[in-house]
UniProtKB/TrEMBL annotation:
Transmembrane segments: 16-38, 59-78, 90-110
Recorded GO CC terms: membrane
InterPro entries found in the cross-reference section: DUF805
Keywords: Membrane, Transmembrane, Transmembrane helix
Organism for this UniProt entry: Enterococcus faecalis
Descriptive protein name: DUF805 domain-containing protein
Superkingdom per UniProt: Bacteria
């Protein structure tokens, strides 16, 4: 794994798919664990609900954050592979644009979840 971020060494197609399969298997494992133990999905089929953490920070919320980090790593692998197949580094950076939207939306919704938590505690 030491050559993933070294742009002087190419990331072969085999290694790219190897890393993607590791991400998939690990993601499937924690999603399955979440469904069996917590009876809740980590994905929740809605990015707008994904970042709102109203309850206490527990292991389920930790798994959600790990799942989100895995999504970011998947985007990084994709951009890295674009550079290796001959795309310009600047064009490959365009594949990271969805991360900007996901991260900023996540920060706003995480803050909104914290604000709602403090508002509801003041009402009680």
């Amino acid at each position: 794994m030491e050559n993933i971020f070294d742009l002087k060494k190419g990331l072969s197609r085999r290694k790219y798919w190897y890393y993607q399969c590791i991400l998939f298997v690990f993601g499937l494992g924690i999603e399955t664990f979440s469904m069996f133990v917590y009876k809740k999905s980590l994905i929740e089929n809605n990015y707008l609900k994904y970042f709102v953490i109203n309850g206490p920070f527990d292991f389920y919320n930790f798994l959600r954050i790990v799942f989100f980090i895995m999504i970011i790593i998947g985007f990084l692998f994709q951009a890295r592979r674009f550079v290796d197949i001959g795309w310009s580094k600047f064009v490959a950076l365009l594949s990271l644009l969805p991360l900007v939207g996901i991260i900023t939306t996540g920060i706003c919704l995480f803050k909104k979840g914290k604000d709602n938590k403090t508002d509801s505690s003041q009402v009680s």
